[in-house]
Structure prediction request, 227 residues.
Amino acid sequence: MNYALTANRSRGFTIIELMITLVITSVLILGSVTFLVSARKSNQVQSALSDLNSSGRFGVDQIMRDVRMSGYRGSDWTLGPLDDVLTAVDGDSADGGDSLTVVYEGTRDCAFVVAPAGIVTNVYQVVDGTLQCNGQSVTSGVQEMQIYFGEDTDANDVANRWMSPGTAGLNMARVVSVRIHLLARTDGNNVSTSAQAYYFNNAQQDAVDDGQIRREYSVTVALRNPT
Prediction:
C-alpha cells in the first residue's frame, strides 16, 4: 500500500512585500504626525486669540468704567466741580502711546490705595506690553493706547470733531466724549507663520513679521460729568 505524504509548507513575506508594508506604514505614521502637529498648532493659535480677545476687551472695559466716573462728586456738589478730571498726554507709539488720567470722588484708586481727601486719581498707560493703572497691571498683551477727545463746538452735546491730546485749539471744557483705542497682541513670537497687517488708530498698518497677531479694541464713552 502506498501512502501519499502531504507536507504543510509555511510561506513567509517576500522582500517586496516587506518594502510595501514599510512604505504604507511610514505614510500612515507621517500622516498621523502631520495631523497631530497641525491640530496642536491650531489649538495654540485659538488659545492665543482667546487670550488676545480677553486682554483687549478687559482693557477697554476697565478704562471705560473709570472714564464714566470722571468728575463724579457724590458727597457735596456745593464744593464745586473737580479740576482737571480728564487729561491725557500724547505719547510716542514706540513707548506705548498715550496716557490717560481720570479724577473723581471715591475711597480707593485702581491700585486699591486709599484716595487722599477722598479724591481718586487713576493714571492709565502702557508699559512694556502691559496696560497699567497707577503702576499696577490691568492686563497684559497690550502694545499701544491712543486717546481722542470729542469736542462739542455747537453746544448740542454731540462731538463735532475728534482731537488727540495736546492738539492746538482743543477746549477741554467742551469735551463731551472720549474715544479709546487699544492695540492688543498675542504673547510669544510663534503664533503666526507669516507677516500680519492690522488696522489701528484709524489707519491700516504695515505688516509685521514677528510671529504675533494684533487686533484693535476701541470704545467711545459719553461723559456724564463736567470736564
